[in-house]
Amino acid sequence: MNRIEQLNNFLKENPKDNFVRHSLALEYIKMGDDLKARILFEEILNDSPDYVGSYYHLAKLLERLHQTNLAIEWYEKGMLAARHANDMHAYKELQSAYEDLIY
């Protein structure tokens, strides 16, 4: 069984498990399936806006797809979420990527 099948099986047991959905999205990126990855990241963040780790990956994905304005929006949302969660490491990582994009 490959990793994607394994993660999908985990999701059948617990469809809202953010760690598994995030991991699956990263696997889709590795496979070149950006659309499936994007959908998963957006679902995670719509369901759980405090799941800070997905903001960076979604914004980077949008950058690669040349959707700069959307990437900027997700970086900004991520910085707010990271600040709210008092996760300064994630905040700085998001801020750095955001500044690289806008400057």
Share of helical residues: over 70%
Mean pLDDT: 97
Number of E strands: 0
Alpha-beta classification: mainly alpha
Tally of individual helices: 6
Text of the CATH class: Mainly Alpha
Spans where pLDDT lies below 50 across 5 or more residues? none
State the CATH superfamily name: Tetratricopeptide repeat domain
Q: What number of domains?
A: 1
What is the architecture at the second tier of CATH? Alpha Horseshoe
What does this structure look like?
The protein is mainly α and 103 residues long. The protein has a single domain, classed as Tetratricopeptide repeat domain (Serine Threonine Protein Phosphatase 5, Tetratricopeptide repeat). It has six helices and no strands. The longest helix has 17 residues. The chain is globular and about 45 Å long. The chain starts with a helix and ends with a helix.
